[in-house]
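hey m, so remember when u said the tokens were messed up on ur end? i reran from scratch. heres the input so u can diff it against urs
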Amino acid sequence: MATIAERGLDGLTMAGLGREVGMSSGHLLYYFRSKDELLLQTLEWSEGRLGDERRGLLARPGTARQRLDAYIDLYVPDGPRDPHWILWLEVWNRSQNADAGARVRQAAIEGAWHRDLVAILAEGVSRGEFRPVDADRFASRLRALLDGFSVHVAVGLPGTGRNQVLGHVREFVDDSLMRT
């Protein structure tokens, strides 16, 4: 993950990665078949760890808004070149040429984030913390906002630091979801 984040997939050779992890490039190709498969499996591994962290945060006691804020904090990159987000950028970049199986795997990862967000929103609506919204539709829009801002943070666009983005997203949530 660190090597992909540092060099990007185009700057990665199987021989170079093999040297870093103490394996031959042949062994790596045996297990991963291609750099694209290596990338997708690395993303799945990273998302597995992040998914565990997300589920732990979301299981904590508190309000739906507190859980939503925790979700957003976990979603937004820590800063430019965040390794997790660099993996996503690499996967999205290669998605246009990916086979159907790879697209299904990517959709499964994104689906887990979506389901967790829908659950938070539905809970907030049912408890009266949030305005009545279609949780699935609102989650799609909020994730699109988060993805757009997160890409800006991950690539280091000026004026889109993590704290600014979190402020924008929280303002959007306040304006569109919170009861007045």
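this time it looks ok to me. The chain has a mean pLDDT of 87. if urs says something different then somethings off w ur setup not the seq
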